[in-house]
Amino acid sequence: MKKILCAFLTLALFCAVGAGCRPNIIDKPDDEYEVNLNVDKNISETLTILVPSNDGGLEESYIEALKPGFKEMFPNVEIKLDRRTISDAKYAESISSAIASSNVPDLFYTNTVFYYYLVSKNCVVSLEPYYEATKKAGTLDLEADYYNSFFNMSTYENKRYVVPRSMDSVVTYYNTEILQAAGIDPETDERFSNDWTWEDLVSVCYDLNAYFSSEEGKAAGYGNAFALHADFDWEAVFNAMMLSYGAEVFDGEGKVAVESENMKTMAKMIRELAEAGRILRTSTSGSTFGNGNCAFHFSSLGPARMDLNAAIKGKFDALPFPLIGKDPKIGCGFAGWGISSTTPVGAKRDLAWQFLQYMISKEGQSALINAGLATPSVRIDLAEEKAWSKGYQDLNLDAWLVGEEYKVSSKFFVSQAPSCTFDILTAMQEFMMKLVDTDKSVDSLVIACKEQLEEAVSFA
Length: 460
Known about the structure:
- The chain has helices at residues 2-18, 58-73, 91-100, 114-120, 128-137, 142-145, 148-152, 176-181, 198-213, 215-219, 235-244, 261-274, 303-306, 347-359, 362-370, 380-384, 421-437, 442-457; strands at 45-52, 77-84, 107-111, 155-156, 159-160, 163-169, 171-175, 226-229, 294-299, 316-320, 330-339, 407-408.
- By secondary structure, the protein is of the alpha/beta class.
- It is globular.
- The model is unreliable at 1-23 (pLDDT under 50).
- Keywords: Signal.
């Protein structure tokens, strides 16, 4: 039986990395199961947690920070880490490999986009039984104590699958030294505010473009600088922009909709900026915000992480993502963990939930913050206290918190088979990159994107 199972998993792994829209890895789990919130404190067990191996040890450090507090709760529980490559290109392969291993993780690391793949492969279970039980027991009140919307981001068919460790919102960093050199003072310039618009950003970018191209700017060392390090191919950015323009990847019937006039209007706006001079850096440019050669940058990093860049240390501040049009959106998302469907119903699955609930407790969130978590906590009290940004109180920390009514996570792929997610994402990333990196016409890029999307979903 064991040999048959191994052969099946090997075949699943081959299919998962070799097909466009990939088949399920394991059978669909039962979403209605019994839970026990009163796990024996003396339970002897091992929890295996999947973490990225290619993020410089960031997520691993967070799990390590949670271990001592969890050990106090369950002294006989050992936590092991399963380190694997986590990226757009490698996530499917890493998950398939993990499932095929002899020790499948009990908790899968995922994020705003990747979770959809886990659900499609039946790798994680619905957490609704735990949410319902904790609400009934009064031990977890998402509506009162948390930014509930970030828990809802991992919803599929009205069921939530992931507990977020923190909340990520796209903000606009700016280099104070560059702006000062260009004669722009954010303290007095009316374009700089927590409700600034895309027009405000573009206006400042054109001023910077003129400065970078001037003899004065070149003499000051900014001849190779750019106004905006945009990362338009980042789904948190392009999704918010698309929605602000009233554009969408698929229409209400699930058909490819990128040929709409709204999408073309957005694309032409980006192309106009790309052709204007030193406004948008290309993806291959050596000039970045981190090395001090771009004035603005869209990012979800907290200030402590941004401050690790020596070239801009102490030389930046932030504003929210600029509001676009009459129905503006701000990109946001999450990173977190879901419980493996291979972790059996009973004590071990209940223990995995205990770890997740500890992670979002005040003690657990404080441990993450002390370990360097530099984005707002999912807990309202810790987020509003700015506990996640100690030492940076002089910065505009409200940039991460304002505009809650505008915030959206990426859902442009949910009308399609979940296993097509990465192919859809790749098509949109290439489209957005080529608007800046190439001189191909907007119309031709739209057509190419449409064809790539149609191919991506054709195997579903």
